Amino acid sequence: MIEIDEKDLHYWLEHVKIYANNGKVADYIPALANQQPEINATAFYPIGDKEVACAGQADYSFTIQSVSKVLTLALALIQHGEQAVFSRVGKEPSSDPFYSIQKLEVEKPSKPLNPMINAGALAVTNMIRGRGSDEMVQEILNLVRLLADDSSIDYDEEVARSEFETAFLNRALSYFMKQNGIITGSVEELLDVYTKQCAITVNVKQLARIAAVFANDGKDPDTNQPLLPSHVARVCKTFMVTCGMYDASGTFAINVGIPAKSGVSGCIMGVIKESGGLAVFGPALDEQGNSVVGMHLLKDLADDKRWSIF
Ligand code: DON
Hints:
- The protein is an alpha+beta fold.
- The chain has helices at 6-16, 68-85, 102-106, 118-125, 133-148, 157-166, 168-179, 187-198, 204-215, 230-243, 249-255, 292-305; strands at residues 24-25, 41-46, 53-56, 62-63, 201-202, 260-263, 267-272, 276-281, 284-285.
- The longest helix is centred in the first third of the chain and has 18 residues, at 68-85.
- The structure holds 6-diazenyl-5-OXO-L-norleucine (DON).
C-alpha cells in the first residue's frame, strides 16, 4: 500500500513547479491558449474511505481532453463488449503523435492502432449509444459523474465550441475512417460529441477520484461498490500503460511505472494499484503534449514512493 499525504504533494509540487518555464500551453484549440502556465495543482485520492490530499490550486477547473478517451473506452466496452470494440480499433501502441494520420493509411485493415490516439478515440466515441449527439454526451457525462461521485460535473461550452470550430484534423481522420467503414453516420455529429467529451470539466480532486476507481479495479474507492466491471478497468489500465502518454509511453513506463493518461489542457491522471488515484495539472506542455510539471512531479514521486508496477 503506497501512502501519499499532503506534505508529500506540497513538497514535490513546490520542487517541480519551476519546470513550467520549459513548456508551452496548447494553442491549437483557441480556448486553451489563454490558460495560465503558472497554475498548478495535484491531488491523491486514497482507497479506503480516507481524506483526499491535495496541493496547489486544487479547486481550479480544467477540461479533461484526452483523459476522456479512457472513459469513453470504458463506456463502449460496457455497452458493446470487447469483440465489437476491437473490431473497430486496434490494441497496439503507436510511436506517432496523438493526432497523426499516417498509420491509418498504411495499416491493413485500415483501423486506428489504439483507442488513446485521436483516430482511435473518434472510432470509439462513434460507438457510444444514443439517438443523437445529446444522448451520447449524456451517456458519457453519466459515467464521469458516477466515477467522480459528483452529479454537478458538466462540459465547458466555450472550450467545446472552440475545438469544434477548429478540429480540421480530427474531421480529416473521421472522414478517412468513414470512407473505410470504421466510422458510420454523421461526422459533424461525432465531432460534436467528441469535442464535448474533451471539454468535460473537473478539478484535480475529482480527477484523482476517477483514477482511484481504476486503482480499485473498478470499484468505488470509498464503499467498494462496483462501478465498472473489473475486466473493463483492467483493459483501460493496460492501454494507459502502453499508449496513455502517446509517444512518451515507453520512457514514462521506465521513469514512473504506473498506468496514466494525459490531456492537452495539462492534466494527467495516474493509477496506483490498490492504493489510490493521483491527478496533476499544469498547462505548460512538452513536445509530446504532456504536462511538464506533471511529468516531473510523477517521476519524483515515483522515485520517492517506489510505486512502479514493473
Ligand atoms: O482531439 C484533440 O486534439 C484534443 N481534444 C485532445 C488531445 C489530447 O488531449 C492529447 N493529449 N495529450
